[in-house]
Amino acid sequence: MVQPAQNVSDAVERLKCNWCQGLNLKTALSCQFCGAPLDLKDVVSESGWREAPRLKDMTEFHFANSTCQVEGEIVPVAEINLAQGDAVYFEHHVMLWKDPHVPMSTMQLPGGTKRMLAGMPFLISVAQGPGRVAFSRDATGELVALPLHPGMEVDVREHAFLLASYNIAYSFERIKGLRNILFGGQGMYMDRFVTTNQSGLLLLHGYGNVFERTLKPGESILIEPGAYLYKDSSVQMNVQMQQLTTGIFGATAMSLAQMTGPGRVGIQSMYVHHTTE
Amino acid sequence: MSAIPSAPVAGRSYTCNWCGAVSDGTALSCPACGAMINIKDIVTPTGWVEVPGRKDMTKLQVGKSSCQIEGLYVPVADFNLSPEDSVYFAHHVLLWKENAVNVSMMSMKGAWKRALAGMPVFMTQAKGPGHIAFSRDNPGELLPIPLQSGQAVDVREHFMLVATGQVDYSWTNTNIWFQTKNGDETETHYPIGQMLDRFTAGKMPGLLLLHASGNVFIRTLTPGQSILIKPTALIFKDPTVSMQLHFEHPGVGMGGASLGGLLLGGLMAFSLRYLWLRVTGPGRVAIQSAFEPVEDNGRNITSHSPATRQNW
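ok -> structure tokens follow
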């Protein structure tokens, strides 16, 4: 039953989003910063993985002065209504449609040749407000909204980011160690997104279903390298070779990425099998 | 139909429509396969049953271990293994595991023949205690098949996700093939693979998990009843269900009346041929809605395994 506010503290009471920690009006049904439903319990497996919030069809949330609406559920679309002065950046192949008058430009990136050699996008496109632009990726999966608070650093598997708002700094982190590069299943670089004193929105697309787990300091877990989607930069990644032996045929090895906390780790259930091209 | 259990339960009992397991029906889902209880099965008028909806985070009990199924698009099977239990799988389906879970290789019987048939020669085995999780790389459904003691199913190759240690893994020849000739080159095609995996529960009941693409439909055929299915849609069948090739040649339409049109239509229809798999009961047969195209290419078939034919 809805009770009228009894006193002043009721009037300013806020509902905290468990996914992004954003504070919402008590009456909100979904988080205004990440779209996560506030009226549903978190879905957590017994082993401790939390499902990324399933964004309801047509959910709308806000960043800076702009809004993002999530459309569809199997291959979801992020439709951005950019306000004057706001901008988002992305890899151009994820763009689904746009208003003709939305200006487009490209972002100059440091280390262009290195990036090109590493097969990463050489050009990052930028769309500026006002107007609408919509994005989607080419596979069944989930949109993962990661609002970044000031002073956060998140590492993302290359090509997994759908878009980021302009006040998030984009760089790339060289994956350390030959073994991590060769057997880590994700190439030489990871995207790194950093906020300084402003907050921003980072949207990822994970293949299949997305799960997140927060590791305590020193706690570790082994994951299939292709399943890795994102992590806080405080989480250390180290690829291990798992020796598998049989009596007759000798030994073979399987690589698994060891993630060691503290921090969040996100995985996707439909992982990418990298072919050697 | 092979060994559907009918364990007597004192007092209240509920027989699961999907796996046939008998429980007391007080849980929200069947304890053996996770199918929801007390919901009306969706049955098409033709008799296909859609695999019952499974709630996210459903938990299945198998021996002293449990398995939680997480996610809806590309579901994950998350096992909590007890110290005495083990599971085996093809190593590429491993999603994550705890450090403590021990993985080792398990070699298969008949490895050489399996290698020639392009089937996995090794399985990876994981021993409890601890958590280990599996998933495959395309959207679809996880299909739990609880096997009662002595019960067996035949599964098309590469559909198996993971099986518990109580389940024995062998194989059987499909004997479904055809040969095409192009010049001097003869090629043998196996529309459902050269072999089928056969999973049999030993003295103890076990759990087999399959992953299929798209949606899954299942149908129980009565003795002698047969249907035609797309070979690549087959997921599994009971061993009592027999299989055979079936060729179907469409007739020539009489609409275009002119002699030339009739000739041309006849020629085109001659090269057009549908290749089916005829499955005959008694027993269950399951199909997936997303399947690969059949390798046939309308080429000249020179010989084939026993088949039926229909010219329209």
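The CA atoms of residues 9 and 26 of chain A lie 12 Å apart.
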